[in-house]
Design brief:
The complex is a heterodimer of chains A (430) and B (308).
Chain A (H helix, E strand, L loop, with lengths): L1 H15 L2 H28 L4 E7 L15 E5 L5 H5 L9 E5 L9 E5 L5 H22 L4 H7 L7 E5 L2 E5 L1 H35 L3 H4 L5 H37 L1 H9 L1 H20 L2 H29 L4 H25 L6 H6 L6 H8 L6 H29 L9 H9 L3
Parallel strand pairs in A: 1-2, 1-3
Antiparallel strand pairs in A: 3-4, 5-6
Chain B lengths: L1 E11 L4 E11 L3 E5 L6 H8 L7 E6 L2 E2 L2 H4 L3 E4 L11 H11 L4 H14 L15 H13 L5 E5 L7 H16 L3 E6 L2 H7 L2 E6 L2 E7 H7 L4 E6 L11 E7 L2 E6 L5 H10 L4 E7 L3 H11 L10
Helix pairs in contact in B: 3-4
Classes of the chains: A alpha/beta (430), B alpha/beta (308).
């Protein structure tokens, strides 16, 4: 046991001290967040400038007055000017742009915007919205409908879902469940793919460098294999923990560094109200989920799923080393169930109780990923129990088999080994 | 006292009998040569002694007790033929790591590494990485990591491959020193001239079977062919006799093989009678190399896969 810990810590520190680990773990999220912050910062700052826009309303859709509560766009109605005559003057009069609304509805473009430089997408949208709503309101009034009354009808329907379980009823949040499920499944998928293949490469490297035989004259081959698998698994966990901490810090740090962002959000009252309510709802949604249960299942499936696959990857790494292409060929059948699991998981978050989702969340080679897709929904106890015990069993089975293959594989040099031979080793008595 | 006793050890693989009923004993503090051509089963034999393989049948006793792979491998230092080190790891850290895998504490490991690094003039290597070392240098490091934990039994598989004569001598001296201090050494090779120089006792293995077993002197005696060299003032005419056969002749030297039941005194008498002045008369013992080649060529040198 002590020796596994020794190997584990070597594997762990060698990887954690690498530059590439530092880059992917710390710099990548920093760059992403910085980019994200910069976009927010730039987009909010730009809207602080006030654009003055003149309107020549030949069609008289505004009926002599423009009511807009936009703060960054200032609309002014201009009379006694034509499109051609005003083009020469609007710059001197201090307008950034002017819009000409033609009275002749047969013309190709009724609404023509002239500006000194191209306007931002949001400015264009605001102007379009303004004209659209004015036109709609005019139509409504003409038909005897109060626009305010109509606005109420226009509200989107919100369905509240209550889930009744044996422990009582609670509010359901389908969207949050979906996102949490998907994220958990995706994390396990990434973990298996990237760290599983790292185990394979690590074992192959040890074999190519001829260090394996030196080490196994001191420790059992199984200890070397497990030490490596656990060490790399610990690197993965470290990476996830750092990412989560970084994300949380960033989220709290952004408002501190860019107070404008928050102010801006508060100023645009309509949007911010909506935002606050979504944030509140998200928090409520997350807290409505059985967090403890999800974390437990996530850790269980992550741990056993990773260990199962990592031991298979280690066995493959021990068999094929000299030739990278050979490893690629051998690894393909192992990648298949992982990819398949991911595909089924993306479907299972939508249909958590479909036959295929249920089957794949019980079958041990796909269950670590697929079960995550169903994790926020109620899963019958027998399915959970069967899935978990099958995974524990397959973990023990594959580690045992992989240990036997590994023991022979790391001492075999310069020989091409087929799947048939590997299977023979797996079941030969030692 | 025997450090190790191997009793009718067998290990069969699917396609061949790698080790087929081999027994031998190694005395404590001796340097034991394990010889054999490529593919003879040396590595398999060693892997069983180091606990990497389990024998199909037979028994290994270490210090008179049954070999227990898990605990007893700590008493063994093994330098395999296919050897390597972690390329990206610093030399000092690597040595500590390998010593700790052998069950040493960090402080003890440090102490012994310092001792050996000083002795072999490697102190300046501490912070270098293995990839910066030459092949000979990493060989030296390899040797140090093998003996670091003061094992009772050291197994060296082709320890001098890749070493220049100066470093090879350095390592050879250390091997002698270790043996003098009571460490037993198994020295596996197919380079005979090194064996003659170093080993007290040898066995020769071929096709999984033990061919010879004994001290170097003993084996040479066993395989001698009654060949002698005679130096002196030889006459110009043909020398012939029924008691010996001339194998080689040069102006001042004669190499001859005794025939029938002639004794050396008869030969000397023959030359003395002829008034030939003799300056020296020596027995020529076969070199291990000759014995090796003779034995291995009798059986087919390249091993064929046998059915079992």
């Amino acid at each position: 046991m002590n020796k596994i810990a020794l190997i584990l810590s070597r594997e762990y520190f060698v990887r954690v001290r690498k530059k590439s680990f530092l880059i992917t773990t710390i710099i990548v999220p920093l760059v992403i967040t910085a980019f994200y912050a910069a976009t927010i910062y730039l987009s909010t700052r730009k809207s602080n400038e006030i654009n003055k826009i003149a309107v020549i309303d030949d069609a008289n859709i505004f009926n002599g007055q423009i009511s807009s509560n936009e703060k960054t766009l200032l609309f002014t109605l201009i009379k006694n000017e034509t499109e051609t005559s005003f083009v020469k003057k609007y710059k001197d009069k201090g307008y950034n742009a002017f819009i000409f609304i033609s009275g002749d509805s047969t013309k190709k473009s009724v609404y023509q915007l002239h500006s000194q430089s191209s306007l931002s997408l949001s400015t264009m949208e605001t102007i379009e919205d303004l004209i659209n709503s004015t036109l709609r309101n005019r139509e409504l009034i003409a038909n005897g409908i109060n626009p305010n009354e109509f606005e109420k009808l226009n509200n989107a329907v919100k369905i509240e879902n209550t889930i009744d379980t044996e422990e009582g009823s609670k509010k359901g949040f389908a969207e949050i469940s979906y996102i949490v499920s998907f994220a958990c499944g995706l994390l396990i998928y990434i973990m298996m793919m990237s760290y599983g293949t790292q185990v394979m490469r690590g074992v192959a490297e040890e074999k190519t460098n001829r260090i394996s035989e030196v080490v196994i004259s001191s420790v059992r081959p199984f200890q070397l294999m497990m030490g490596k698998i656990l060490g790399i698994g610990a690197v993965g966990l470290t990476q996830f923990i750092i990412w989560i901490i970084l994300m949380l810090t960033m989220q709290m740090a952004i408002p501190l560094f860019f107070p404008e962002v928050m102010n801006q959000m508060n100023n645009t009252s309509q949007i911010s109200n909506e935002n606050i309510s979504t944030i509140a709802e998200t928090l409520q949604g997350i807290s409505s989920l059985p967090i403890g249960k999800i974390i437990f299942y996530f850790l269980f499936y992550f741990l056993l799923g990773y260990l199962t696959y990592a031991s298979i990857f280690a066995a493959i790494g021990s068999v094929a080393s000299e030739d990278q292409q050979e490893a690629q060929q051998l690894v393909l059948p192992v990648l298949m169930p992982i990819i398949l699991g991911f595909v089924i998981m993306t479907n299972a978050v939508d249909n958590p109780n479909s036959t295929i989702a249920v089957f794949a969340s019980i079958f041990p080679l796909t269950s670590p990923i697929v079960m995550m897709g169903r994790i926020t929904y109620e899963i019958p106890l027998w399915q959970m129990a069967l899935s978990m015990s099958l995974l524990i069993f397959s973990f023990m089975f594959f580690t045992w088999i992989a240990g036997k293959i590994y023991r022979i594989g790391i001492l075999m040099y310069g020989k091409k080994i087929s799947w048939k031979e590997i299977i023979k080793w797996a079941f030969v008595k030692s | 006292m025997n450090i190790i006793e191997v009793k009718s050890l067998k290990k069969y693989f699917a396609s061949q009998k790698a080790v087929d009923d081999i027994s031998f004993n190694i005395k404590q503090g001796s340097i034991f040569g394990l010889l054999g051509p490529n593919g003879a089963g040396k590595t398999t034999l060693i892997r069983m002694i180091t606990g990497i393989f389990y024998p199909d049948s037979g028994e290994i006793l270490l210090n008179g007790k049954k070999f227990d792979p898990i605990n007893d491998i700590l008493k063994i230092g093994y330098m395999p033929e296919e050897r390597g080190l972690y390329k990206k790891m610093k030399i000092g850290e690597q040595a500590i790591y390998l010593a700790r895998l052998k069950g040493m504490s960090k402080a003890d490991a440090m102490k012994n590494i310092k001792y050996w690094f000083e002795k072999l003039e490697m102190e300046s290597w501490w912070n270098k990485k293995v990839e910066d070392l030459s092949k000979g240098m990493s060989q030296k490091l390899q040797f140090v990591t093998t003996v670091l934990h003061q094992p009772q039994l050291i197994i060296l598989d082709e320890p001098f491959s890749g070493l220049d004569p100066v470093n090879a001598n350095l390592i050879k001296e250390e091997i002698f020193n270790l043996a003098k201090n009571g460490t037993s050494i198994i020295f596996s090779t197919h380079r005979m001239e090194q064996v003659e120089e170093i080993c007290d006792h040898i066995i020769l293995v071929n096709k999984g079977k033990k061919m010879i077993d004994g001290t170097v002197e003993q084996i040479k005696q066993d395989f001698k062919e009654d060949i002698y060299t005679l130096n002196g003032e030889l006459p110009s005419e043909e020398i012939s006799s029924s008691s010996f056969k001339v194998i080689q002749r040069s102006p001042k030297q004669l190499m001859l093989k005794l025939q029938n039941d002639t004794s050396t005194n008869d030969i000397l008498k023959h030359f003395i009678d002829k008034q030939i002045k003799i300056t020296s008369f020596n027995e020529v013992l076969p070199s291990l190399n000759d014995i090796f080649i003779k034995l291995v060529e009798d059986t087919t040198a390249t091993r064929k896969f046998q059915e079992i």
